[in-house]
Amino acid sequence: GVVRLRRMSDSYDSRPKTSAKNNHIYRICITGGPCAGKTTSLTTVRSDLQEKGFMVLEVPEAATMMMKGGCFIQTSKMSFAQSVKFQISLMQMQMHLEDVFLDIAINSGQPCVVLMDRGVMDGSAYTSLKIWKAILNETGWTSIQLRDRRYDGVVHLVTAAEGAVEFYGKNNEARYETLEQAKDIDTKLINAWTGHPHFKIIDNRHEGGFKGKIRALLNTVTKYIGLPENAFVQRKFLLMQDGEGRFILNEPSGLKRETFEVEEIFLVCRNEEEVESKIRSRGKEDSFTYIHETKTVLKGEEIIRKRQISAREFIQLMDQKNVNTNSVEKIRHCFIYKNQNFVVDVFKNVAGCPTILRIETNDKMSEVLIPPFVKVCRQVTGESTYITGTMARNDYKMPEEDIQSCLMDISFDMIKKNSVSLWNMKEDGAKIQD
Known about the structure:
Elements: E1 25-32, H1 38-51, E2 55-59, H2 62-68, H3 80-108, E3 112-117, H4 129-139, H5 143-148, E4 153-157, H6 179-193, E5 199-202, H7 210-224, E6 233-239, E7 257-266, E8 274-284, E9 287-298, E10 301-309, H8 311-317, E11 328-337, E12 340-347, E13 355-361, E14 376-379, H9 388-391, H10 400-405, H11 412-417, H12 422-427
Parallel strand pairs: 1-3, 1-4, 2-3, 4-5
Antiparallel strand pairs: 6-13, 6-14, 7-8, 7-11, 8-9, 9-10, 11-12, 12-13
């Protein structure tokens, strides 16, 4: 039967509580598959950030609290309606915990990192797609609200069952998932968070074993909160495409992708230290998030700060637009391949439709794996020609030689096999085909 519940989209609105005066509050979700080292990781990150002068709050996992409180619920024995109600209750509890800890962080008046032991999107990995859709329908929530508005950064620790089998279940005799079950849950969790603007997957292929995995996590969290000493290297590649943003060839089955509309508007800088200020909208259909990002240089160090803002603030800040720039409109594609997060931006209001693949690595010398279903024209890392700030200028033009060399022919049959493209975003509602 159909589940009838009170709609909760108003009382559990996922918009951030942080504002301009509270832009030193950082919400970091740490998730992962079974036996991924999450407990040890949270403890280590907390200690490291406290030594750096941050107040650190750790939001406990709601499901674990319920289990410890005697709620040994066997969801496999529940009816469809019972499962939906239970999952909604669990998610309400998780969001309420997060909101209470966030209030405490804001009221402290100190720079604070709120670490989340898992996030609300994790629930989608532990239930069926049918139940998950029913949850969203009954509550009025959207995946974008739950995934993108509640967390500034998300880190996924890959299960030991994938790449460190000898350690799987070693310190936890109660571990009930088999290796294959653990891998399956891990993949579902990655899919649940794919599309978050700051999502990092940390696998088990690090020098130094588990200690190397912890170091990678510390570096990632440090980057998310804006500390400059742990630099990540971003590689950028100009992709081949058909002139309208179609760029995927021979797509593998089961590829999880998310597609968004993005608009960036550059603002007038407010002081001498500020070298760049911009606002960004990101989303699809009627669900968007809004960011205000500033770049400052202090004592030779470049510091980037980002804060979520409301739609009203976004509209108000548009009045401060730099008249020497155009707004930049993109179609952004996010997908995971070989445990690496890839972002492709199609600049739809720039002549030539430049299509840029971005990959983030920890090391300048790291070998970059290019997915076989995209074709690189050339690497453009570090080229000012393909920085968004440059491309926003009123007089910007994509170099003619790049326009010609990046063009490729795609047959109509190939177009219909590809769902992620500028063309499909408009014509087919950006629906993902399996």
